[in-house]
Design goal:
Layout (H helix, E strand, L loop, with lengths): L2 H8 L3 H9 L6 E2 L5 E2 L2 H15 L4 H12 L9 H39 L2
Helix pairs in contact: 3-4
Organism: Actinoplanes philippinensis
GO molecular function, one term: DNA-binding transcription factor activity
Protein name: DNA-binding transcriptional regulator, MerR family
Amino acid sequence: MLIGELAERAGTSPRTLRYYEEHGLIHPSRDANGYRQYDDGELRVVHEIRALLADGFGVDDIKPFVACLRAGNSAGHVCPDSAAVLRRRLAEVDGYLDQLTAVRHRLQTQLEEIKCQMTP
């Protein structure tokens, strides 16, 4: 399939696909006139990339997941390198949650102080 068809089927744009290609995430072949050609496996890779980006992963973090898919695995997260990225990302998310919990506690305390001052 050509880049436009892949973009449409993946719910993205040709520009985005060229960006993925620049970062080595997708690998089109070229036909005689130089047009990019993609097989159905690339569609699966693009779906994985988009899902990981939506979850806050960076382009470099995504590479092990793509490599895992290209190795013939049923999912991009089942390989050891992908699992290492998942563990690191989970630790980051846990850190964010701790920070947000502390902020929530401070805000709640301040609101309670206001209530106490306003109550006669």
